[in-house]
């Protein structure tokens, strides 16, 4: 592999996006039509991948990153579904957490700020510094993501739109 291969690969993905030829949508995300449901479907898909990784490779870095993403997508789902916001309103990670806190989704109002503070410090350290997440942190992050997702889905009364039950059984 050389520089020409890298340039070719970049041009290929640019072309796919520019031409709108990204291929069939992931089956578990194919039914979503609204901005909110797309965010919910992404959160469910990330949690499903975490479940698969825990059964297989126990890739701690991926589990931690996907857990952070699943939490943020779950919050974004709530905000887009329950307010006049759109996904485009949340270009910065912290905007999602601040809006969730402001809307009182958690009666313990410190929860979103604590999760955001943890995300802010540890996500960056794991990905940009030398921190290496261990098994216990990966399991803890996954469990945090599952419980936050479940809470938000319940708070929005969106159980019928959440695909986690079917993906927990391997039916992604």
From TrEMBL:
<feature type="domain" description="DUF8154">
    <location>
        <begin position="2"/>
        <end position="164"/>
    </location>
</feature>
<dbReference type="InterPro" id="IPR058467">
    <property type="entry name" value="DUF8154"/>
</dbReference>
<dbReference type="Pfam" id="PF26481">
    <property type="entry name" value="DUF8154"/>
</dbReference>
<protein>
    <recommendedName>
        <fullName>DUF8154 domain-containing protein</fullName>
    </recommendedName>
</protein>
